[in-house]
Structures are given as C-alpha cells and as structure tokens.
Amino acid sequence: MEKTKQGHINSDIKNGLATIEFYHPSHNSLPSMLLGQLASKIMEVGQNDEVKLILLKSKGERTFCAGASFDELVSIDNKANGKTFFMGFANVINAIRTCGKIVIGRVQGKAVGGGVGLASAVDYCMATKFSLVKLSELAVGIGPFVIGPAVERKIGLAAFSQMAINATEWQTAEWARDRGLYQEVFDNAEFMDAYIERFTTTLLTMNPTALNKLKEVFWEGTENWDTLLETRAEISGELVLSDFSKKTIQSFLKN
C-alpha cells in the first residue's frame, strides 16, 4: 500500500473521556489523509454531549509524531497542492482550538515538526523523559510557519525562535517542560499512563461547563487563526516547491 494511504485514527468514548489515537508506520508521520481524519474526529467528539474531556495520543513506544509525511511532501508539484497539504496541520490545530472541550496530550516519545505543533495545541500535555522535541522544518527549506502560532503561544517567542532557527538540534523533555510545552515529565510511559488515568478521572468529576469556559479563556486572542494559519499554509506550500526543499527531502527519504 502507498505510504500516504497507510495508518489509521482510532477513537473510544468511556465515562465521558474521548480517547483519540493516531498511527502511521513511518514514525507516526501524518499524511493528508490522516490529518483530515484527525481534524474531523476531534470536532466530532468535541460536539458530542457525552464527551467531557478529550485525550489525544499516538500508538507505539518510540515516536509520538514525526510531523509531515516526507513521502507526500516530495510529491507536491504546485502551490495549490502545497497549501492543501499544510492546511491539514492548520485544520487539526484549529479543531483542537475550537472543539469546545479540554484536550489532554499524551507524548510517549520524540516529537518533530508538526508533532511539536500537536503537543503545543493541546490544553495540557504529559510526556516521558524520552519525548525530545525538534522543529526541523528550516533544515528542509520550509520553516515552522503553520504550527508556529501554536508553539509560540505555548512556549513564548524566545524559545520558539530558538527551536525554529536551531533546526537540527534536539531539545530535551525537561527543556520543553521548563518552557511550558509539557506540564509533567515522567520516567516512563507506565508512570505517565497511571498519572493520566488519575488526572482525567479527577477532571471528569469537575463541572463540564466550567471546563468548557476555561477552554474559551485559554484561547482568547486566537480568533484570527482561521485566516492566519491559512496564510501560513500558503507560505509553506510555496517553499516546499523550491529546489532546496525538493533535494533535501529526497535525501532524507534515501537515508
């Protein structure tokens, strides 16, 4: 099967908690198909009156999300297709922003590029000590334009600038925690999952209206993101067509 058609999104609702899990065999990278399904699923459960809380996670042990699908990036041949691809990430971020429910993130391993964007977009994020982060976009000729607003909102301009410019260096989970990307860092996934179970169980006893109102407060000032992220997607969609990006992405695929 073509790699851009592989992977899946699973969801489950139990006692008011909606768990959404994504998976792709290439280190949980996200092609357009999965991005579209993920955005739709987040909005679907967010509008479900039975759901009080959303948990976003990925399958596997080593990588939370490797970001954009290089197999799909290298096939982009015009600006319109480029914008459409990067709008996939924009739509997921905006779905988290507007779904109306608090979204908890579970990060079990490395997060790269768009994976950092997902971790930044959730309202509360737990991680293991293996959950290093890197914004590698500049190294392939693009830049973290679409996810930038979410990352900057969470860790601030200085830390976002550091990650965006220093595109080849990993930052530790402790670094990410100290800057507000992760709220908790655990020694392993077992400890993290035990904490998440207790944490979500407690949150589910809280007033759901209060939780939803808190969500609105957290996202005040982002009302322009539909337009902003679309503009950023156009920038990335154009840059991915450059000779630099094409050659660099091809070299990554060969390694």
Characterize the structure shown:
With 255 residues, the chain is of the alpha/beta class. The protein has a single domain (3-189, 223-254), classed as 2-enoyl-CoA Hydratase, Chain A, domain 1 (Alpha-Beta Complex), CATH 3.90.226. It contains eleven helices and nine strands. It has helices at 32-46, 70-73, 79-98, 114-121, 148-155, 157-165, 173-178, 189-203, 208-218, 225-239, 243-254; strands at 8-14, 17-23, 53-58, 63-65, 102-107, 110-112, 124-128, 133-134, 184-186. A six-stranded mixed sheet has the order 1-2-3-5-7-9, sandwiched between helices. A hairpin with a 2-residue loop joins strand 1 (8-14) and strand 2. The longest helix is centred in the middle third of the chain and has 20 residues, at 79-98. The radius of gyration is 17 Å and the shape is globular.
Keywords for this structure?
255 residues; 2-enoyl-CoA Hydratase, Chain A, domain 1; single chain; 9 strands; 6-stranded mixed beta sheet; alpha/beta; 3-stranded parallel beta sheet
Strand content: 15-25%
Any idea what the shape is? globular
Number of strands: 9
Mind telling me the CATH superfamily name? 2-enoyl-CoA Hydratase, Chain A, domain 1
Topology, element by element:
Layout (H helix, E strand, L loop, with lengths): L7 E7 L2 E7 L8 H15 L6 E6 L4 E3 L4 H4 L5 H20 L3 E6 L2 E3 L1 H8 L2 E5 L4 E2 L13 H8 L1 H9 L7 H6 L5 E3 L2 H15 L4 H11 L6 H15 L3 H12 L1
Parallel strand pairs: 2-3, 3-5, 4-6, 5-7, 6-8, 7-9
Antiparallel strand pairs: 1-2
Helix pairs in contact: 1-3, 3-4, 3-10, 4-5, 5-6
